[in-house]
């Protein structure tokens, strides 16, 4: 049976479609809905989005693989998007990235075995005034130092463990409900 969106996601997609002049124009936000529901965008999810928007799967695949915010593979609950572009690089971005890699025991592009963290090395994230910086979820962490990174990682790790303990069965490893809302 082909993959389907949950009822909540279908409603979100319908709301999105009502705001755009064509189905194709809604592709990016619909991909966000899909990624929130399924955690990543493997072939069957790409096929679902293609079907929903009457687009060729190759078109959807091309968009998914163009943007670093979309993932073909499963990601950790906390996706650390670490900028190493010019401003961040000049202010120690590579040192920050190396520090995070050392703390988590993984390299950029990898996920910790417990699914708590993924690291993604990013190009400019448009917060150069706060370099070096990273994004995790909706949060921007600016003017990073190794000490600040440690505080952030400790807090995220603590929350991940608490969430695992409080509702291990009804959360996905991405910490989202079926409609993408925070569980
Ligand atoms: S170079 Fe890092 S945010 Fe712009």
| Secondary structural class | alpha+beta
Biggest β-sheet: count, sense, barrel?
4 strands, mixed
Total beta-strand segments: 4
**How many separate domains make up the residues?**
2
Shape: globular
Low-confidence stretches: 169-183
- What is the CA-based Rg, rounded? 18 Å
Sequence of secondary-structure elements: HHHHEHHEEEH
Query: What is the subunit organization of this protein?
Result: single chain
What CATH calls the topology of the largest domain is Glutaredoxin
For this structure, what is the CATH class of the largest domain?
Answer: Alpha Beta
Q: What integer is the average pLDDT? A: 91
Enumerate the distinct ligands: FE2/S2 (inorganic) cluster
